[in-house]
Amino acid sequence: MKSDPIILAIESSCDDTGAAVLRGRKVLSNVVAGQSVHEKYGGIVPELASRSHQQNIVPVVHQALEKAGIKKEDIDAIAFTKGPGLLGSLLVGSSFAKAFSMAINKPLIEINHMEAHILAHFIEGDAAPEFPFICLTVSGGHTQLVKVSAPDQFQIIGETIDDAAGEAFDKIAKIMNFPFPGGPMIDKLSKEGIADKFSFAHPKVPGLNFSFSGLKTSVLYFLKKEIAKNPNFIEENKVDLAASVQKTIIDILMKQLRIAAQQNNISQIAIAGGVSANSGLRAALKAESEWTTFIPKFEYCTDNAAMIGIAAYYKFMKGEFTDQASKASARLEM
User: Fold this and answer.
1) HEC-encoded secondary structure of 83-110
2) Mean pLDDT to the nearest integer, 167-174
3) Is the Cβ–Cβ distance between 142 and 303 less than 8 Å?
4) Would you say the CATH fold of 129-295 matches that of 6-121+303-317?
5) Alpha-carbon distance 171 to 167, whole Å?
6) What tens digit of pLDDT does each residue of 14-30 get?
């Protein structure tokens, strides 16, 4: 099997259209096209997302190949996100990948989006965790604690029973009338605020699971009460509110992560997913002296195709290919 295959990777699970070219574990290009169309709706509109993917997919792939200096004849395999994600968005990426595969007669590799987030740590250039390690995956759609024993061995040991951490950030930001996406805005404002100014509910859930719906409700009722006394309460206290909300979410995440590390006797800790770009979470992880912590580069935190490419690299080396019968799956499990 070729030791440094050239893989074209495509990511289209939500609202970002991504294409990347990897030679082995080295990223030659990583192009992402976002979608501003959702901002006025305060959240992702699935139908609009899939339409935007259709507009973006060809130019994004073309740009990725051009930046990498790779011709289509040089490609050894085409990888795509099978799921989980928005079905319409997934269909655009998978359909393009299958059509391109047929056109240039190259094999297909289907990838689990969440596994790819974790394997982004193994992109050439940075130190990677040793197996086994625990990865906290935090995004707008998922919050999981995963024990990773090999590039193809993932065990979910804890996950959210309702809202994801990124979803909590965005929903609370919407309550406070912050622009979408709200998570980055809360992160930005929190740097100027007092994190202990306001206190909010912490969930009581079994095992290593998470819950964030109660926090959202706690913030909502708190704000209603305060606004009744002072209509300008949010504007006058927005930095302290942002800092307090961020601290609460991070405290919830870190508490479960500490328990997981202790129970499994593992000190190799990694984070992945869009929320891993959060400055407060990164600082909290770096402050843990008992762990060896691995934090991905910012460009590999949010949805991107380079992470699809590195996951595909490991499948390519084992000869794990799929065919034209592959179907996108909105709720694909690890």
Assistant:
1) ECCCHHHHHHHHHHHHHHHHHHCCCEEE
2) 93
3) no
4) yes
5) 6
6) 888 999 999 999 999 99
pLDDT tens, 272-308? 998 999 999 999 999 998 999 999 998 999 899 999 9
User: Which pLDDT score is estimated for 21?
Assistant: 98
Positive or negative: CA dihedral 101, 105, 111, 116: negative
Domain spanning 129-295: CATH 3.40.50.300? no
- In a 3-state reduction of DSSP, which class is residue 190? helix
What is each CA distance from 113 to 80, 82, 238, in whole angstroms?
9, 7, 34
| pLDDT over 90 (residue 201) | no
Q: Which two tokens stand for residue 139?
A: 């995004």
Q: Identify the architecture of domain 6-121+303-317 in CATH.
A: 2-Layer Sandwich (3.30)
Domain range list for the chain: 6-121+303-317, 129-295
Contact call for residues 138 and 274 (beta carbons, < 8 A)? yes
